[in-house]
């Protein structure tokens, strides 16, 4: 980079000094003193004293981004306990122009350092333990916050990263009329054998004394293969608490393992205050964060306390439980527009949030943090809440945790609608218990999880 003036050199020197200052939270052991968000407020986390200390949460996902230390307190990540599992996949064009056949190779153990195609696992983990935050795009919009920590739902748990979703390159299918299939490209997924191996790894750790243990599975597929079912059964029998996403297929039904009755499944809700100025109209980018000082607007991220049913809606993408298929939807949690670290899209870009770089505003690096929606985002809220319950009573089993979560949830009407501002326009979100040709379905389960009620009911 050339500088051609004294002013330019001075500016460059200041930027370089700031970048070299590094991550001021590098030595922090926890985000427990960090700032809360709309989603933690919606489930009343501020009303409980538990932080998850002494509890392990295994995140079966894409692993953590290579620069995970930029975001997370190092003390909260059990580097020595993490691992990954992969299988090579060879793709071949099938007889159908839109069909791609796959030949799967042997299972192998690998690192938990994550996929560079998706930071999904990093975002999921951030909901559980919180993260370090500063965004140049906030400052450009007039919200020049200093570097802060965002509090996790269970900020003192120990995360065990287990990579079971890996990067693959799918070849193009040029004769297929579907443009996405025709183009081929990068994909991130896992096989049932990879997921089962991850579950068995966690079960072995729990059996060896790393407990209490919760597993977060923000993943799913259309069927539950025997190898995965057997691993789930082994984990639950060993006292591991298993929480999984309901899926993002709406009225098409739930995915597995979320639909498997022994698993605690999480559907998604949103908040009617998303993107709105508190008490006024659109559009306010900092609605998600409770930060009491200037330049924030008062009441940012502040939901009604106690939570009002009127300001909660069931996300349109949240999978419904199809009665005829034997699905079971247990509870709902915040899964709409959840803010968290997501280092660039498309693909991985390493731009430390503390570097003062311009990549978050220019070029193809869209920054370190995203608002992400999905039942993948709802699941870690439930898993973290289970960890808080286990801190209070480490002897709880799967059925007990599920029963308490369901019996203390805020009931959501089976049929309802809300007017929601969805980033740039108002839309009407409707949910009901009729999935058309698929018959009766359940969009709400037992309702929205509530931390204070669940902890109060934990013996």
Features of this protein?
alpha/beta, globular, 459 residues, Rossmann fold, 10 helices, two-stranded antiparallel sheet, 19 strands, disordered N terminus, 23% helix
Structure explained in plain terms:
With 459 residues, the protein is of the alpha/beta class. It has one domain: 3-Layer(aba) Sandwich (Rossmann fold). The chain has helices at 6-21, 38-42, 120-129, 136-140, 179-183, 192-207, 226-237, 375-392, 398-407, 451-457, and strands spanning 56-61, 83-93, 100-110, 130-133, 148-151, 158-163, 166-170, 185-189, 213-217, 241-245, 264-271, 312-314, 321-322, 331-334, 338-341, 369-372, 416-421, 426-431, 441-442. Strands 1, 2, 3, 6, 9, 10, 11, 12 and 14 form a 9-stranded mixed β-sheet that branches. The protein has a two-stranded antiparallel sheet with strand order 4-5. The protein is globular. The relative contact order is 0.17.
Any chance you could write out the topology, listing elements then pairs?
Layout (H helix, E strand, L loop, with lengths): L5 H16 L16 H5 L13 E6 L21 E11 L6 E11 L9 H10 E4 L2 H5 L7 E4 L6 E6 L2 E5 L8 H5 L1 E5 L2 H16 L5 E5 L8 H12 L3 E5 L18 E8 L40 E3 L6 E2 L8 E4 L3 E4 L27 E4 L2 H18 L5 H10 L8 E6 L4 E6 L9 E2 L8 H7 L2
Helix pairs in contact: 3-8, 6-7
* Structural class designation: alpha/beta
- Tally of alpha and pi helices: 10
Radius of gyration: 22 Å
Here the CATH topology equals Rossmann fold
Order of helices and strands: HHEEEHEHEEEHEHEHEEEEEEEHHEEEH
Per CATH, the class reads Alpha Beta
Give the CA-CA distance, first to last residue.
Answer: 62 Å
What amount of the residues lies in strands? 15-25%
The main pleated sheet reads as: 9 strands, mixed
**Helix content estimate:** 10-25%
Number of domains: 1
Low-confidence region ranges:
1-20
Query: What shape does the CA trace take?
Result: globular
């Amino acid at each position: 980079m050339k500088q051609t003036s004294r002013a330019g050199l001075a500016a460059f020197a200041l930027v370089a000094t700031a970048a070299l200052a590094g991550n001021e939270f590098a030595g922090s052991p926890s985000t427990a003193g960090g700032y809360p968000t709309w989603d933690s407020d919606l489930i009343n986390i501020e009303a409980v004293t538990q932080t998850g200390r002494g509890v392990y949460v295994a995140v079966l996902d894409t692993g953590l981004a290579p620069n995970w230390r930029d975001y997370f307190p190092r003390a909260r990540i059990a580097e020595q306990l993490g691992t990954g599992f992969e299988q090579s996949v060879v793709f071949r064009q099938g007889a159908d122009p839109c069909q791609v056949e796959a030949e799967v190779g042997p299972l192998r153990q690998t690192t938990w350092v994550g996929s560079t195609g998706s930071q999904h696992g990093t975002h999921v983990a951030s909901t559980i333990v919180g993260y370090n935050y500063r965004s140049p795009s906030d400052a450009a919009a007039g919200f020049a916050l200093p570097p802060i920590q965002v509090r996790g739902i269970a900020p003192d748990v120990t995360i065990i990263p287990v990579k079971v979703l890996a990067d693959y390159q799918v070849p193009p299918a040029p004769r297929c009329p579907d443009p996405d299939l025709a183009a081929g490209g990068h994909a991130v997924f896992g096989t049932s054998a990879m997921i089962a191996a991850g579950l068995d790894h966690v079960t072995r750790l729990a059996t060896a004394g790393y407990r209490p243990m919760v597993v977060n599975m923000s993943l799913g597929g259309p069927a539950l293969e025997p190898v995965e079912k057997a691993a789930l059964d082994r984990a639950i029998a060993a006292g591991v608490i298993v929480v999984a996403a309901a899926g993002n297929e709406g009225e098409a039904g739930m995915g597995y393992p979320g639909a498997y009755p022994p698993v605690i499944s999480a559907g998604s809700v949103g908040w009617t205050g998303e993107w709105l100025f508190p008490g006024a109209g659109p559009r306010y980018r900092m609605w998600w964060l409770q930060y009491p000082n200037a330049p924030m607007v008062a009441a940012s991220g502040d939901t009604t306390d106690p939570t009002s049913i009127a300001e909660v809606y069931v996300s349109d993408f949240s999978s419904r439980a199809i009665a005829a298929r034997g699905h079971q939807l247990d509870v709902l949690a915040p899964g709409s527009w959840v803010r968290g670290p997501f280092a660039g899209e498309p693909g991985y870009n390493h731009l430390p949030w503390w570097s003062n770089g311009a990549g978050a505003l220019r070029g193809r690096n869209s920054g370190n943090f995203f608002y992400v929606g999905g039942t993948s985002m709802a699941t870690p809220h439930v898993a973290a809440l289970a960890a808080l319950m286990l801190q209070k009573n480490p002897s709880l089993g799967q059925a007990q945790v599920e029963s308490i979560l369901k019996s203390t949830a805020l009931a959501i009407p089976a049929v309802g609608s809300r007017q929601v501002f969805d980033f740039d326009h108002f839309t009407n979100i409707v949910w009901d218990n009729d999935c058309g040709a698929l018959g009766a379905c359940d969009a709400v389960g037992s309702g929205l999880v509530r931390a204070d009620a669940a902890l109060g009911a934990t013996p």
